[in-house]
## 1
Amino acid sequence: MSRIAAEVPAAAAPRWARRKQDRPAQLLAAGLDLFVERGYAGTRLDDVAARAGVSKGTLYLYFANKEELFKAVVRESVVPLITAAAGRAESYEGSSADLLRGLVMSWWRDYGNTQAGGITKLVTAESSNFPEIAGFFLAEVIEPWHRLLGSAVARGIARGEFRAVDVPTFVQMLAAPLVMLSMWKFSFGPCCQRPVDHDLYLDTLMETMLRGLAAPAAGSDATKRAAESAERRAARGPVARLSPDKNHRAPQQHTRAAASEQGKSRER
């Protein structure tokens, strides 16, 4: 063994192997940054490779095309956050109000207020031009996130902590302001003269939503109004929907004509 070989530290040998193992993470980090900065259409794989410090050929060893890179970025940066939140929610023993608030706050802390949060703006802005990435994001991010929020709301209803609501509709109403907050951060936020106070925004949102969800106390005016409203709806029966076809209007016209004839008969 040569003197040079003998003097090389043993720990130095696997250095290049470790760097090679780090390349996927470096490519994903570069991809995330460029997708958020330039959008999906504006991101080129050459630039991703250059940002990661590798050749374009090396990038293709890990990702076949830009779509596969984007999916890998989402699965690395976003999907695990939802999985972790679902695990915490499953074992949570506190109130449903605290659970729902915690899910929303952790969404902002771990996703919305991070670089990955810019993906929401990308997908919203470019979904019509790239429906395949929109469908992917819907299936792997939006729908699982909505199911998680919905499970917290359904839990509160089942335990009598929340009043009965249409859960999917309520979840959409809750999620929409969160999307708006994230999009604002990555669009108008940097140039807005009056910055949005994110903590105040989220506190106000959750206070409003939880007040609307709160189950009214037995015997309260709210309970009585809800019961009276339900009775009125039951008495009215199904509400007829407006229809553009002529057959829908015919009975009304017939009724008016009959009333007119009756009036003429009384005059005669």
Note: The CA atoms of residues 79 and 141 lie 6 Å apart.
## 2
Amino acid sequence: MKKIIVTVLFAAVFSFTFTSCGSTPKTEDTLPSAIEDKVNEVEDKVEEATNVDNSAALEKTEAARNAAIEAGADKIAQEQFNAADALYDALKAQADSGLDISVPLGDVEKRYQALTAYSKALENKKKIEENDLIPYDENSYNEGCTALSEFENLNNSTNLLGTLMLDKANMANGKFINVLNKAYKQLAKEARVNAFKAKKDADAVKAGVAAKAEYTKAAEEFKSGDQNYAMQNAESAYTHYLKSTEQFERITEKVAEKRAAAQKAIDEAKAKVEAAANYATKADQEKPLEGENIDGIEAEDAVLLEADSYAAPETQEAEIPEEIEDFEVEDFKGNDSSLEGLVKDAVDSINETVTSTSEAK
């Protein structure tokens, strides 16, 4: 744009110089040196414009195309993808001509980016519907569906711009992400409460001692949930809390079963001891033993079991706070992709260019 403006201005000044004086234009050999220098400068700029290296713009467009394929756009939106490919192939054929094709390549790049966002929007919409998450932010869901329809209707538009496609696709995907963020934030908070209760139940049966390895694993899962929540990745935090709850509950049940089995064995042993004691009492009454060092009977001061020392069970409990710091979910607002908005952006860009040019002078 700047080159065109400079060229037009120069042509106008050049024309005015020779028409205003009312004389016959001078030949090239008699041109004033200042004008001759300007002509040479313009010729150099024209030569530069026809010897442009488009490799960087091609690489960006190719990367956007690969991302769209990875998102499944070549299958999900096959018609739009093929249309973008047709434009891309035509531009690649001109890449070695030396012409500057960075602007049309940028448009194709945005088309591929739009198809990537569109594919992700459909995936997020499906996740919302399959998991009954619409009630968590119904307004954003409806706005996302509207933007999605508007994007799909762009196929019928003429003079379609990649910028408009990208704005609509980003709007749809952003609104669906709003729903997911708010839903999983609430679900994660509820899941954390359940996970903390399961941990307290495990602590009550001294699971940190009775099943140390499994208990430690469940506690680490809980902490991973807290770390993800702190990084505002609520969906991942929700998954970690669910796993932690399941693990703590399984440990508690396992330890409880072991304790019940152990208690049963103790009760049975006590019954046998009582029965043996009764039998011994009866035998001692009927035929008492006499003397010392009787075979099969230990001395009164004999040590039958080594003294054992157990770590306090409380010291084996994982330190996890009952509450966690909350965060706010920011709504996706999107860009003004209307015709008026695009015109306003273009005018703002021109004003900035004029301002910067004036300041430079």
Note: Residues 1-28 have pLDDT under 50 and may be disordered.
## 3
Amino acid sequence: MKKTKNILALVLFLLFLVQYAAKLDFDYLMQLQTNPNYRKWSGFSLLIIILSQWILPVSRGIFDLTGNALEKMIAAHNWLGVISPLVFYFHSSRPDYGLLLFLTVVFFTNILVGVSLNSVSFNRYLRLGILLHIFLSASITILAVFHVWLVYYYN
């Protein structure tokens, strides 16, 4: 199952990268993304996914979750990470500059780090990878909250 998740995550990442590099635009989605209500609710959905990813470290650290419950929590965490590029794409298919581009790069870098943590070949780098994953996750959370603040401050 890990292999399926990894492949799906990589495919979604590559699809996002290809459409971004090739400047492929889908008119209906572009029109939706100009609608303030759509942007607000798609952004809210993405922020919920980002924040819900923190349930795993909180459950492990504070509540000392172990065993089967921990395995289920890790599986849910992984699946949310796998579908997050899709939600990101529906929220913003063209992050062109500044904070949005930086947030996009950090977001997708974190997905790639997460996928590598699920790979058997990277087991010896597990501690370093988890530290990087947590650092990038904290950065994404801070940048996303800052992005939301900027959006509401200037609108």
Note: The helical segments are 2-21, 27-33, 36-52, 55-61, 67-91, 98-117, 126-154.
